[in-house]
Amino acid sequence: MTGRIFDHAFAWQMTPRQLTSAASLLADAALSQFGPVDQVIAVERGGIEPARAIASHLGTRLCAIRARHNHTSDLYTQATGQVWCTAAGLPPAAVNGCVLIVDDICGTGATLRTVTSILRELAGPGTRPHTATLCRNAGASDKPQLTVWDNLREWVVFPWEPRPPGGTTLRTLPDPRQARAA
């Protein structure tokens, strides 16, 4: 597992408007690349807001899976490499067709690997799992199939998270339409 890479120069701040725009870009890219999406599965906690917006944009159902990589959301926390995950909230036949797994960020790739593996065990025949994140850290060994901001080298503060401690320099992420969903 590659570790997350941080230059420690500042933290990126994602605005609510950027979240909405990025979710639309990801939804359109998913439809274009994978065809109709039957289900969006959010990786709790960080994936809930982007997954909700993507599912709404696509007009499809939303479910969630619980996964936890770190025990803290403190700035510059390195990933443990150990992911706790449970699909207890998913109905037995819930995973089928074209499924889009959504998380806020791919820090190392471990969470998406674990969630995808568990969902494959639950999946019906012909299920096609795909992955999407708003952001990807430069240290991630895996790459989601869809992401908007790629190869970031700083921490990202999302709209649903508390403001970081005083003294942290915040910079707004570039416009998502200039980043791209690829």
Give the SSE map.
Elements: E1 11-13, H1 16-34, E2 39-44, H2 48-58, E3 61-68, E4 84-86, E5 98-106, H3 110-122, E6 128-137, E7 146-152, E8 155-157, E9 170-172, H4 176-179
Parallel strand pairs: 1-8, 1-9, 2-3, 2-5, 5-6, 6-7
Antiparallel strand pairs: 3-4
Helix pairs in contact: 1-2
Explain how this protein is built.
It contains 4 helices and 9 strands, in the order E-H-E-H-E-E-E-H-E-E-E-E-H. It has helices at 16-34, 48-58, 110-122, 176-179, and strands at 11-13, 39-44, 61-68, 84-86, 98-106, 128-137, 146-152, 155-157, 170-172. Helix 1 crosses helix 2 (48-58). The mean pLDDT is 88.
Percent helix: 25-40%
Radius of gyration: 15 Å
- Describe the global form: globular
Poorly predicted regions: none
Percentage of residues in strands: 25-35%
The secondary-structure element order is EHEHEEEHEEEEH
SSE class: alpha/beta
Count of helix runs: 4
Distance between the termini: 23 Å
Multimerization state: single chain
Number of E-type strands: 9
Characterize the main sheet.
Answer: 6 strands, mixed
Which key terms come to mind for this protein?
182 residues; alpha/beta; 6-stranded mixed beta sheet; 4 helices; 26% helix
Briefly say what this structure is.
By secondary structure, this protein is an alpha/beta fold.
